[in-house]
Structures are given as C-alpha cells and as structure tokens.
Amino acid sequence: MIDIGISKLALIGAVALVVIGPEKLPRVARTVGTLLGKAQRYVSDVKAEVNRSMELDELKKMKESVETAARDVEQTVHTASSDFEKDWREATDFASDYDSGTSTSDYGSYDSRSAVAPVYKNPGKNFRLKRGAVPRWYKARAGVRTHVQSGAARVARFKPKR
Prior knowledge:
Layout: H1 6-20, H2 25-100, H3 136-142, H4 151-158
C-alpha cells in the first residue's frame, strides 16, 4: 500500500489548508472520511465475496469427491452382493443336489431322514406384559398394591357391607 508517514500527512494538511481555506476544511475532511469509510467497506465486501466463492468452489470439489467415493462404494457393494448371490446359488444348488442324492461324494450317501432339525418352540412369553423383579407372592404378603384403582373404586371395594 502507499507509505504515508507523519511528515507527509502534515504536508498534505498544510496544502489543503492553503488551497481549500479554513472555513471549508472541516466539511471537506468529513466528506473525505466518509468516502474512505465507504471505500474500505466496499473492499471488505469484495474480499468476503471472493472468499465465499473460493469456499464454494472448495465445497463443490469436496462434494464431487464424496460423490465419487460413494459411487465407488456402491459399485463395490453391488459387485460383492452379486458375488455373494452367485456363491449362495451355487451352495444351495449343491445342497439340493446333495439332498436329492444326485451328487456323489467321498463321504458316502447322505440320508436327509437321519438328520432331523429341531422344531422351534415358542418360549410362551408375552413380551407386551411388564414383568417385575419382585415376585407377586412377596408383594401380596407385604401389602404392596399391584393394580391401580381410582378413589371411587377403592371406596366401593373397601366399603363395609350392611
């Protein structure tokens, strides 16, 4: 930038005082100050806009790199899944051939009736019910309420019979 020292500013001030005059100098100085402030704000706005555009370009490049990486991952997953499906088909075809007895091996023939898979038995739990850690018999003995009742229902329950 321009190198302006104290001596140069004093020289410019003296020339302005002689040329403009002492009456108009404060108004001119105020006007010059506002113009310099506007110029500085304009320059800072331009710098900010340039920085934003540079960051936007960087973000676009980063977005493209992430998209290409995602495409590569998608492609590898697709090829791996197709390889898995192919291997799975081969294995299931081999197993079905083995079960039907069409395939012969060194281990002898396989009888599907000899190996019976265990039948699934439901554990009989109702997972919707909340099960407490304290047994019901203990709650009954200790007098802990296990069911919520309204006040009117409690009065009706414990009302003496006539």
